[in-house]
Amino acid sequence: MTAAERDAGTGNEALNGAEVLLRVLDEEGVEVIFGYPGGAVLPIYDALFKQDRIRHVLVRHEQAAVHAAEAYARSTGKVGVVLVTSGPGATNAVTGLVDALMDSIPLVCLSGQVPTKLIGNDAFQEADTTGITRPATKHNYLVREPGTLAQTVREAFEVARSGRPGPVLVDLPKDITVGKAPLTKPALSRLQRLSHQGGPDAEAIARTVEAMKTAKRPLFYTGGGIINSGPEASELLRRLARKTGFPVTSTLMGLGAFPSPDPQFLGMLGMHGSVEANMATHGCDLLIALGSRFDDRVTGRVDAFSPNSFKVHADIDPSQIDKIVPVDVRIEGDVRDTLEALLEAWGDTPAPDLSTWWNQIASWRSVDGFGFTQDMDPSAIIRPQHAIRRLYVLAKETGRDTFVSTEVGQHQMWAAQHFQFDKPNRWLTSGGLGTMGYGLPAAVGAQVAHPDALVIDIAGEASTLMNIQELGTIAQYRLPVKIFILNNHYMGMVRQWQELLHGSRYSQSYSEALPDFVKLAEAFHATGMRATHVGELDDVIRRMLAHDGPVVADICVAEGENCYPMIPSGAAHNQMLLGPDQDSEAAGLTEEGKMLV
Amino acid sequence: MTETIQHSVISVLIEDESGALARVVGLFSGRGYNIESLTVALVDAEQKLSRITVLTSGTPMVIRQIKAQLKRLIPVHDVCDLTEEGPYVGRELALVKVVSSGDRRTEALRIADSFRARPVDTTAMSFVFELTGSPEKIDAFIELMRPLGLAEVSRTGIAAIGRGPSVFHLKKEPV
């Protein structure tokens, strides 16, 4: 029995706004809120205290509440919910909101606001939250009338989850949550005009399948849209790939939609993508983009991107089509429906003979762009790629459902390259915004959503310090997350760019005065471990995985390691830097590229 | 793909709610699109819809992006590129203050007459002319007034509507 049903007999007894809010959240199926209290949201916290249907997870910083909710959403397919107070509570949440906007994560962020009468008076802890978050959200609301509260919150959920998902903020002045408010019945959505009518365009599907039947060098380029569309979309992608025999490459956000170990999978494409994925993207004659958005980290130099291919772009957000790269066929709609239509139109057509194309791919694959040499002498320095590969192998041996979050930087790219995923929704990373400090709170959110799963934050020592306070949240809720720090004493990606583009002048990128991560873990009631040499690595990973509580593993890795392959900014996909010995100018590393991010 | 810069007049029907205009303006500034002029007013009190007319410029790809991005805004009901959809009427209103005397004053009044600009305020030393027309016509008028004591200009920006019986907001039947 839902709370709404309980009330049905008694009518809407006088509820205050905060109680109405919680009733609507309950109706929307909300089980967990990530938040932090403060003056403007005290009525909501009071209402939370008096009920037991919705659980509240107290974070240590509002940014972390948003990242935790993002990971909760990404790993469950539900809408993540955040509750923060006015002023600094809301402004602290902004980074997380933009992160969710860039990566299309469905969130509802409830923020307190000073009472309606004080708005505009520079009141204590007042900020123009709807003004500040307007470009940081898919949409936002300021509730000014108690009568609109219930419907506004319902609509916020609808906006967050419909179409291309994204974060929605609802700003709640304190008089609205304190005062009486009606629990209005759900009204007919005014958003129906926004929903995509019908399936994908039949002609576009026919033209695509026509191109698929005649292509000699086809390629699927899949993105986070497949994950957002739900596990069924991943399943349909797998079926389409089997039926056609086409190779598949994925963006960072799309990892897991297609099984990484599958021979048809070429790995991630883009700046730190695999040789075979990037060369295939450059050389294909048919590129089918599915739920991906031609991000600059994917395309490199746009005018040299996949220069000779017929391009199809399927996306739920029409504004993404023809935004960066002009395409030949546009398919608007949910990628799940598009995949279904493509499968149906393909029918029982036998897979075409693509052996020449696959032979070409095999020769690129043999370059082994992700390769490295680990000295296996027990006293040898650990190479970060080796640490991730061992983590993958040993985690897989546990047989447990595994979720991996990352921070941002080299370790993130190495994780994308060396950790393998065979299911969607298991990979939690900050793609579009590149938010350092994402991974630790994301691990919190994933572990809250999946209490029995193995949740690992693959971290760098610099990034993880940005939200290290969340070790407190981990301790409070006894979340057994594993924080696997690849500690190279540098902001590694900054250091790498400084080496390649700024004459090895390592300006401010050395991680000076680091804490002792083992002691730090202990101070937060977690278990600390350290591996300084290859000989200790497997043992530390095994003990970390076997431990039933939170662990911080400080993995001391080679300081000067760079992440390869690398397409320097402004270069084309066939101009990858494969390793440190390569002539950087020949690889398209130009003064012009230096201007780019 | 042509990279020529084109001008476009885009009409947007948007719910008349707090912050709606800021969403549109913020979209243009945030994504680096041009606004050459912008007008906004409530046009449908019953449905609470405002109509925004934006004069913008960009490559064809940018113009398409502007329209697609506008359509993503939740309060936006419809977006119409009048430049693309066919002939349209675009009009701007200007109030032009001219302060002068003697021959210059007479000449200002004579030119105003030929432009069908109406003096809406007259003193011994000044006129305020009201003028409607295309932005080009208003530009021309202002240039002619410059040597004749041009003192102050207020312009509304262009308001535009398609020619012929078809209507842009399809949800409503043409009357």
Automatic annotation (TrEMBL), chain A:
The keyword DNA-binding does not apply. Keywords: Amino-acid biosynthesis, Branched-chain amino acid biosynthesis, Magnesium, Metal-binding, Thiamine pyrophosphate, Transferase. GO terms for molecular function: acetolactate synthase activity; flavin adenine dinucleotide binding; magnesium ion binding; thiamine pyrophosphate binding. Its EC number is 2.2.1.6. Residues 205-342 form the Thiamine pyrophosphate enzyme central domain. Transmembrane segments: none annotated. Pathway: Amino-acid biosynthesis; L-isoleucine biosynthesis; L-isoleucine from 2-oxobutanoate: step 1/4; Amino-acid biosynthesis; L-valine biosynthesis; L-valine from pyruvate: step 1/4. Gene3D superfamilies: 3.40.50.970, TPP-binding domain (3.40.50.1220). Its cofactor is Mg(2+); thiamine diphosphate. The keyword Metal-binding applies. Residues 408-555 form the Thiamine pyrophosphate enzyme TPP-binding domain. It holds the Pfam family TPP_enzyme_M. Residues 16-130 form the Thiamine pyrophosphate enzyme N-terminal TPP-binding domain. Binds 1 Mg(2+) ion per subunit. Binds 1 thiamine pyrophosphate per subunit. InterPro entries: Acetolactate_synth_lsu (IPR012846), AHAS_TPP (IPR039368), DHS-like_NAD/FAD-binding_dom (IPR029035), THDP-binding (IPR029061), Thiamin_PyroP_enz_cen_dom (IPR012000), Thiamin_PyroP_enz_TPP-bd_dom (IPR012001), TPP_enz (IPR045229), TPP_enzyme_TPP-bd (IPR011766). It is an enzyme of class 2 (transferase). One of its GO terms (cellular component) is acetolactate synthase complex. It catalyses: 2 pyruvate + H(+) = (2S)-2-acetolactate + CO2. GO terms for biological process: isoleucine biosynthetic process; L-valine biosynthetic process. CDD domains: TPP_AHAS (cd02015), TPP_PYR_POX_like (cd07035). Belongs to the TPP enzyme family. This is Acetolactate synthase. It comes from Gluconobacter oxydans (strain 621H).
From TrEMBL, chain B:
Catalyzes the conversion of 2 pyruvate molecules into acetolactate in the first common step of the biosynthetic pathway of the branched-amino acids such as leucine, isoleucine, and valine. Residues 9-87 form the ACT domain. This is Acetolactate synthase small subunit. PROSITE patterns: ACT. Keywords: Amino-acid biosynthesis, Branched-chain amino acid biosynthesis, Transferase. It catalyses: 2 pyruvate + H(+) = (2S)-2-acetolactate + CO2. Its EC number is 2.2.1.6. The gene is ilvN. Dimer of large and small chains. The keyword Transferase applies. It comes from the Bacteria. The lineage of its organism: Bacteria, Pseudomonadati, Pseudomonadota, Alphaproteobacteria, Acetobacterales. GO terms for biological process: isoleucine biosynthetic process; L-valine biosynthetic process. InterPro entries: Acetalactate_synth_ssu, Acetolactate_synth/TF_NikR_C, Acetolactate_synth_ssu_C, ACT-like_dom_sf, ACT_dom, AHAS_ACT, AHAS_small-like_ACT. Pathway: Amino-acid biosynthesis; L-isoleucine biosynthesis; L-isoleucine from 2-oxobutanoate: step 1/4; Amino-acid biosynthesis; L-valine biosynthesis; L-valine from pyruvate: step 1/4. The keyword Transmembrane does not apply. PANTHER family: ACETOLACTATE SYNTHASE SMALL SUBUNIT, ACETOLACTATE SYNTHASE SMALL SUBUNIT 1, CHLOROPLASTIC. Belongs to the acetolactate synthase small subunit family. GO terms for molecular function: acetolactate synthase activity; acetolactate synthase regulator activity. GO terms for cellular component: cytosol.
